[in-house]
Every structure is written in structure tokens, then in C-alpha cells.
Specification:
- Two copies of one chain form a homodimer.
- Chain A has five helices and ten strands; from the N terminus they run E-H-E-E-H-E-E-E-H-E-E-E-H-H-E.
- Chain A is of the alpha+beta class.
- Chain A folds into two domains: about 100 residues, Alpha-Beta Plaits, CATH 3.30.70; about 140 residues, Pseudouridine synthase I, catalytic domain, C-terminal subdomain (Alpha-Beta Plaits).
- Chains A and B meet through loops of A and loops of B.
């Protein structure tokens, strides 16, 4: 008998070509699938993630679902998998769920963080983007507010993606100062489009440097044209930070 | 005319064979010397550090001294060097000092931190040692107190080093809990012997696991025998954290 499980995990995306399985590249999904397969008599075990992080993007919290035998010793399974998986991937919890639960479609809330440091810093550099410019955080936060609500994010999305709508419902978009000349952007929505957070951050950095005024964000949204928004920032500062389900 | 300068810097030691210049290995010292040489007409410019961190050890604060021309634009020099140096090394400040000031001999206070995480964590792993064992922090702190004061640290030092005395005056040796199953050991003294912090941490971890009682630390000190102390822990969790001079 099979049982559906949700796995809560985290990963350092630095050395992976993103979450999603693909030929001739090392991804988080196939690394986990390979270990599950080894653990379960070398059968093929497909897993399905809550989203598809791009190459180099990290996850502080990520869920995937998978069908495995019933009545497993879940603590033991978690322990063994963590031993087998590289340091860059950790399983936090294995949760039995109803067979119809879906890691991607059932997630109602996702939150990302993007870290930037404005002074050279050897220790921040792995998980934060070095952007040595004066930034007006107040203006960046004013601009960010124009993104909140139910908006069409076509201007902030990679072209030709396979989604049926580009409307996302943002509940939060906010910059905060941290210690040591580091800032973080937190953005929360029901869903995100491909490349969206990195395009939003790049655009808000143009506001922060004074190249565009905060109010222009509304025009960019309305244009539904990727070329109107700013350049995407690098992956290494980006973390999928939180994913929520009504039943977890 | 020459002027002596103190440089305050920091470095990620991961990819360096320590601070000290040596043949056929990349060290922090020669990386900085090379950039200074490029900046000053390719003359040879020897620098002298406040200590000699081992391969893989990091520094949040480190000083070296060097003799350079008088009346330099110090902000400009700092800016240029930071551009030339790799991400792993940063110069915080360039400070003109009297010609007789010495980065190594004049330092009166040094403080190290050692980080350990007891749960698998992809993001802590670069600067912290993964040690998945139950630890009794209260016992470790009791043991650490036996090290405080003016003591002979021969039992915690690499053999055959060139120092004239193994007596160090410890003012602090303390474990603290951080977030996310991470702990940190802070140790402060007028001076340290080679490998001393890592041998102390290894020994205190034996206390924390219950293999030896806190009081045994006194016996280990008195034995003046390296084989009595515990195994040295890996370099990656170790940071030279603070260095102080009476005149800075």
C-alpha cells in the first residue's frame, strides 16, 4: 500500500542547476530522487516540488510530495536520507498526508527573501549580492507598495512561460536594513512567475539609485512588457523562505 | 619618506593556506603583498601580521603593518586595494602609526570564536563545524573556567614551536547558544599558541559528551603533554575575532 508524504527540506542552491530535473545537469530534484531510489530498492521514485527555483537560488523552506510505502519509520527515513544527501540538502520533516494533496497546487502562500550587501564583505558574499551603491531605502519601499495587491506581473516575468495567467496576489513587499551594511527584501504572494523576484529587485534597485521614480512602477506593471522593468539580479542572494499549506 | 601604517582587514580563510607567506601555496599575506606591490611600482613590499592563522581559519578582524610612502590618500588606497583583492579579503581601514609600532608584538589582546552546529544545516556549514552530538554546555562551561588565568598551555599546543614560553593569560573562555542548534565558543587572551584554540575546543567537546569530567582540565594543563588533551577540531569553524592595541 502506498501513502503520500510531504517532505519539508532546505537547500543551498549554489552548486545546483535549480530544483527541476533536467538532462545533463545536477539539480536538487534528481539528487533527492536518486537517494530515495537507493533507499527503496532502486525503484524509480518521482517527486514533485512546490515550485521550481532557478539555478543558484536557495531554499530555507521547500516542500515536495512523493508516494512511498505506508507505515514507514519516518524519523529513521529522515535520518538515513540526511546521511546520504550532500551537506547542501537537508530534510527537516516527513509528513504523511491525504493522497490528493499536491505540493505545488495546494500551496497558498510563498515568501522569498533577497539579500544585498553594499560594503565588501567576505562572509556575506556567498548568500548575498554585493551591490556597492548608495540606495534610498525609503524610495524603494514606496515603490514596492505599488506592487502589493492583485496585479498582472507580465512585465516582471520571463517570456513564453507556460502559465495560464500572470496575475499574482502580493501581500507583502518590503525592504529592511540588517547589520553590517546589508539589506533584505521580503516579498510574499499566493504565487510567483519565473524570474519575477529577481526582476522586481532589479527594478527597485533602479528606484533606489534614483534612475526612476517610485510612481513609475505602476506604469511598468500596466505596460505588460518585460523590457520596461529593470535587469534581473543574480541568483545567489535569493532564498525561497517560506511555503504554506492550509493543512500543514 | 616612509611612514608605518596599520591595516585593519578581514578574510575568509577557506581557500588560503593560512596567513603566512610560504612557497608553493596561496596565502593571505602574499595575496595582499602582491596587490601592494602592483600599487607601488612593483617594488617588493613585505607586510607583517598580528598573528599566523592556520590554513582554513578566518579572521573577522586582523591587523598587519607595512612601511609605505608618507602622505598617501588613504581612502583612495583602501578603495583601490579592495577592488584589486579577491572577495575573500577586505581592507577596513589604513591607519598611520609611529615607526616603532609592531602589529604582532604590540597586540595585547586577541579573541577567537569557534562555531559548531549540531543539526545538519546547508547554510551554516561554510563557517561552522557540523558536530551532530548531544552536548552538555553547562559542563563545557565549567571545564572552560579551569583554563582562565595565567596558565601553561603546553598540553594544548603543537609540539616544537619556536616560542620562548607557553604561558598565556586567558581572560575569557565561554560557550553560548545561538539560534538554529548552533553554539559558539569565545576565548580571549593576551596571546595564543599554535593550534591552541582548536585543541581546547576538541577537549571541551569531550567534556560535553561526557567522556571526561570538567575537573580533568586541571590535570591536562599540569601534565604539559599534548597527548593528554583532545583532538583538534577542523579550521573552518574558527575565526580570529578581535585584536587590540593600546594605541588604536
Amino acid at each position: 500500500m502506498e501513502q503520500r508524504y510531504f517532505f519539508e527540506c532546505a537547500y543551498d542552491g549554489t552548486d545546483f542547476s535549480g530544483w527541476q530535473r533536467q538532462p545533463n545537469a545536477e539539480t536538487v530534484q534528481q539528487t533527492i530522487e536518486l537517494m530515495l531510489s537507493r533507499r527503496f530498492k532502486n525503484t524509480t521514485i518521482p517527486i514533485l516540488g512546490c515550485g521550481r527555483t532557478d539555478a543558484g537560488v536557495h531554499a530555507n523552506q521547500f516542500y515536495f510530495h512523493v508516494d512511498l510505502p505506508k507505515n514507514l519509520d519516518l524519523e529513521q527515513l529522515k535520518y538515513k536520507l540526511n546521511k546520504m544527501l550532500p551537506t547542501s540538502i537537508v530534510i527537516f520533516e516527513v509528513i504523511p498526508v491525504l493522497a490528493e494533496r499536491h505540493a505545488r497546487f495546494d500551496a497558498t502562500f510563498r515568501s522569498y527573501k533577497y539579500f544585498i550587501h553594499t560594503s565588501k564583505n567576505p562572509f556575506q558574499d556567498k548568500y548575498s549580492w554585493y551591490f556597492p551603491h548608495d540606495l534610498n531605502l525609503e524610495k524603494m519601499n514606496r515603490a514596492a507598495q505599488f506592487l502589493v495587491g492583485e496585479k498582472d506581473f507580465t512585465s516582471f516575468s520571463k517570456l513564453h512561460t507556460d502559465v495560464f495567467t500572470n496575475i499574482c496576489d502580493l501581500s507583502k513587499a518590503e525592504w529592511r536594513e540588517l547589520d553590517n551594511d546589508q539589506i533584505v527584501f521580503e516579498i510574499t504572494a499566493n504565487r510567483f512567475l519565473r524570474n519575477m523576484v529577481r526582476a522586481v529587485v532589479g527594478t527597485l534597485l533602479e528606484v533606489g539609485q534614483g534612475y526612476i521614480e517610485p510612481e513609475i512602477i505602476t506604469e511598468i506593471l500596466e505596460a505588460k512588457d518585460r523590457s520596461r522593468a529593470g535587469v534581473s539580479v543574480p541568483a545567489k542572494g535569493l532564498f525561497l523562505n517560506e511555503v504554506k499549506y492550509p493543512f500543514i
